Amino acid sequence: MPHSAFAPKNVSFDQRALLIDGCRTLILSGAMHYPRSTPAMWPALMKQARRGGLNTIETYVFWNHHERRRGVLDFSDRLDLPRFCRLAQEHGLHVILRIGPYVCAETNYGGLPAWLRELPGVQMRTDNEPFKREMERWVRLVAEIIRPLCAPNGGPIILAQIENEYDNIAATYGDEGRAYLQWAVDLARSLNLGIPWVTCAAGRAAEAGPNDVASADGSLETINTFRAHEVLDAFSQKHPGLPALWTENWVGWYQTWGGLLPKRPAEELAYSTARFFAAGGAGVNYYLWHGGTNFGREGMYLNITSFEFGAPLDEYGLPTTKSAHLAKLNHALLACADRMLASERPSIASAGPAQVVCAYEGGVAFLCNDDEHAAATIRHDGRDHALAPRSVKIIAENGRVLFDSATLPRPVTRAFRTAARLAPFRVWREPLPEEWLAALQTPRVSAKPVEQLSLTRDETDYCWYETTLAVAKSEAGAPRRLQLDGTADIVHVFVDGKLAASTPGPLRERRGLLDGLAFKQSFELALPAGSHRLSLLCCALGLIKGDWMLGYANMAEERKGLWGAARWNGRPLRGAWRMQPGLAGERARVFDAPGCFAPWKPLKKTAARVAPLAWLETTFPRPSARGPFAFDLGAMGKGMVWLNGRCLGRHWLIPESDPMGPWMDWMKRSLVGAPSGVATQRYYHIPSEWLRDQNRLVLFEELGGEPAKIRLVRRV
Q1: Which of 148-162, 431-445, 477-491 shows the lowest per-residue confidence on average (mean pLDDT)?
Q2: Which of 89, 140, 172, 487 is most open to solvent, judged by the fewest CB atoms within 10 Å of its CB?
């Protein structure tokens, strides 16, 4: 249907719900981030959303992807935001657009472009003129792009968001933070898009102190948490005239390299969602309905390439047990929506020490057992209803059970099957910096190491640091310590061209201030006496998403590479440093066109493993079976992977070992999981539309691996 065929809509709200053309509307939304899937996937994802009972799609806007270089805009392909919104509308879905431009989202730099760091005097997300100037320019640009897509103009966008979870950092900035947040809301309202603007509060909003502000005058505050019903009373007291909208109902959690995979059981998620509506909730956004993939270098610091997030639709867009369970809940809620919203608040009656009945006009009732451990029986309208621990039943006026959060559908199981054979690999070794052709790049020479992002502008993960290491006769043979004070994230230590040590994982997600222990690394090396060439390959793992990852220093302080002192056996290294940003293979774009630079050689069948710093290439035909597809990289180490010139993302086969730290204690009521010891991520998603009749796979392998064991697999 052409866009012009959609009628304009008026969007507002009262104390109970969002109003669309004056009618109270229950919002059942699912988050899908357009850059984390592909345009060919979008229609199927929208269909699955409708099938799952959703009436709305939510997405952030990703400034960091749209304007990687200042003034150079990209709204093509995966970044075609208008196309994504129009597709949602064509599938009968509203859109909630969270402009930010700080969005968190587990995306590189929290959605901010890395070049903001280069602005003199910049401080992110506070009353800082350089930051506000760029933010206003971007927000106004986005507003003009989306204006035709807003509901008053016949578009699908019914809500927009400015900023994101500001209460996470508000106490750090005090009055300047309050002034910034009010400025941001005033900026949003000045755009005159004709739709309400929201600001959202983070997961522990009910515990927030007076300085933990999340909203400002003129915005509709919303809730982000695992169990919104537990903060609903506090929310209603704070905002008596606002409807209760749950902008992030976390369906699971993200995973970090070497970290635990936290899972949210489908029945716990359904319980929390139903319980929210039982208590008077007006709308929910499942964060996420489809997580997708952190293609290229788009994930935040330490986030793995998969962004599955435990979502109802898996990384490949396929339905799961969770999607089937939530679909039944959503359809039950839609069937009751008019009667629920006709009541200003439900009638709540105690049915036991941890049991309540929440009744709406027209006979709809929610029977709630909030006991974490014990089952219960609730008598309602002359019938006894057995409820499992922490569960909700939705009962129709005739006594029929519309939904039971504890009763799961038949489990959906998925597996990977081999889809095609790969041709034998060819290999080319990445040269060390002194081996580079002069035409590629002249090294930066300095008396001290220069921080990586000032050299790379975050256009590559890699930067070489090279100097001379002198080992005295008295130090020879026995292990001695190479100490780096001020370094991030991964360092591979090469001595005289050979890999001698690497940063052990897993790394900490919250590392504290830059002068803390998390930014110091040491390596025990046993070297012969004499002068040695020390080459450090520093590898970034994405930029942070928020101040708290740097001990609440401002995001502008983010650093990579080597910037502090280097010591051998306690003595400072005094030679000059030569810095070489990026890899020779990246500069020659060997992942784009075969044979243009790299002298590829066939990988010998007898060579079970390739050495570190290996570029690998192979080919394969388009699989005859239908996708979705992935590469099984279970026998590799760490690096990057490309298909037909497109970067699929980082790969790292580090074992899953790190449990949830103490800072995640507040999450443990909703998430479950234990370290498995298997690789954090073994399979790497291949969008079917990126395949050709003949395909070329290229990997850069930092540590070495067994490429003969790489498989093209199909998700079934």
Answers
A1: 431-445
A2: 140
Q: Domain spans of the chain?
A: 3-312, 416-427+587-715, 432-582
Return the closest-CA partner of residue 640 out of 317, 316, 298, 314. 298
Which residue in 221, 248, 267, 451 is the catalytic one?
248
Rounded Cα–Cα distance for residues 597 and 607 (Å)? 24
- pLDDT score of 708: 94
Judge whether 706 counts as a catalytic residue: no
Q: Look at residue 3 and tell me whether its pLDDT is greater than 90.
A: no
Q: Is the pLDDT of residue 584 over 90?
A: yes
Helix/strand/coil percent split, the chain, to 5: 25, 30, 45
Kindly state the tokens that stand for 441: 């790049």
Higher pLDDT, 461 or 210: 461
**Identical fold between 3-312 and 432-582:** no
Q: Looking at residue 446, what is its pLDDT?
A: 97
Q: What architecture is domain 432-582?
A: Sandwich (2.60)
165 is catalytic: yes
Q: Is residue 223 within 8 Å of 207, Cβ to Cβ?
A: no
Q: CA 66: distance to chain centroid?
A: 16
Residue 297: HSE in the Cβ half-sphere, 13 Å Cα cutoff: 19
Check residue 146 and give its pLDDT. Answer: 99
| High-pLDDT (> 70) share of the chain, % | 96
């101040």: which residue's tokens? 547
Nearest of 17, 509, 9 to residue 241 by alpha carbon: 17
Specify whether the CB–CB gap between 542 and 481 falls below 8 A. no
- DSSP at 259: B
Is the CB of residue 61 less than 8 Å from the CB of residue 97? Answer: yes
DSSP 354: T
CA distances from 12 to 215, 430, 475 (A): 18, 58, 74
What is the C-alpha separation between 504 and 463, in angstroms, rounded?
18
What radius of gyration do the chain's Cα atoms show?
Answer: 27
- Token reading at 516: 């803390």
The pLDDT-based confidence of 393 (bands split at 50, 70, 90) is: very high
394 vs 64: CA distance, rounded Å: 43
pTM of the complete model: 0.96
Compute the C-alpha angle 493/497/502, nearest 5°.
Answer: 20
Cα torsion 137, 138, 142, 144 to 10°: value is 10
Neighbouring C-beta atoms of residue 463, cutoff 10 Å: 27
The encoded tokens of residue 685 equal 């998603």
Is 620's pLDDT higher than 60? yes
Architecture of domain 416-427+587-715: Sandwich (2.60)
The CATH number of 3-312 is which of 1.20.140.10, 3.30.420.240, 3.20.20.390, 3.20.20.80?
Answer: 3.20.20.80
Nearest C-alpha neighbor of 285 from the set 312, 317, 255, 263: 312
> What 3-state DSSP class applies to 690?
helix
Give the pLDDT of residue 661.
58
**Separation between Cα atoms, residue 61 and residue 122, nearest integer Å:** 22
pLDDT at 662: 52
What's the pLDDT band for 206 if we cut at 50, 70, 90? Answer: very low
**Rounded CA separation 597/580 (Å):** 19
Which strand (E) or helix (H) includes residue 601?
strand 601-602
Please state whether beta strands 197-201 and 157-162 pair in parallel, antiparallel, or not at all (unpaired).
Answer: parallel
